[in-house]
Amino acid sequence: MSVSSDTxxxxxxxxxxxxxxxxxxxxxxAVAREIIRERKLDPKTFDAIVVSLRRLSEQLRKxxxxxRIRKLxxxxxxxxxxxxxxxxxSDKAPFSTVSSLVADISSENEQFHLIRGSKSxxxxxxxxxxxxIKKKFKQFIVSExxxxxxxxIRSSPEIEKLPGVVAFFYSRLGNKGINIIExxxxxxxxxxxxxxxxxxxxxxxxxx
Length: 208
Fold this sequence. Notes:
By secondary structure, this protein is of the alpha+beta class. The protein folds into 2 domains: 3-62; 73-207, VC0802-like (2-Layer Sandwich). The chain has helices spanning 3-12, 15-23, 28-39, 46-62, 65-74, 95-107, 130-137, 165-175, 199-207, and strands at 77-90, 113-116, 120-126, 141-154, 182-186, 189-195. A hairpin with a 3-residue loop joins strand 2 and strand 3. Helix 3 (28-39) crosses helix 4 and helix 8 crosses helix 9. The longest helix is centred in the first third of the chain and has 17 residues, at 46-62. It is elongated. The two termini are 37 Å apart.
């Protein structure tokens, strides 16, 4: 693999780094040294890597997907729900009981999100259902978190055609040191669950 290919691959694997290079706010020499260390390249390639990083920065600015993503976000609507809890259940939890819980939550017109993984079931809903969930699934609870907020972003169908939107969100939140507790998407809806204390910073980061 050539030095330029190595450099490009290294950057593409790190969305945070890609955004910083696009903005030209990073120390190219420090990045070049890290590429040499991680990729086990000859130290003599240092200058070539720096040149590749500068060229990549120019390319990223010309093909600025982030400006299109920002436009998409300006046209999106945001909903915030507080007092959210997240329960992760083992895959041994009876799905009939999960379905019963979903029916109970729906009957009260409360929002919920159900994510079924290969070895777990995640329930995202209002904290007022915490006691019910603990009672029904006591022996199946893998983890539980409360004191959370849900950020729901409703975008236009353009989001389907625009690559890098979710990576953009992750990059923005990660740069602010905000941990995403859970995330999910359904067509034009993108959902993030974060700690309540992080809400203000999360909204500013995403909308910036």
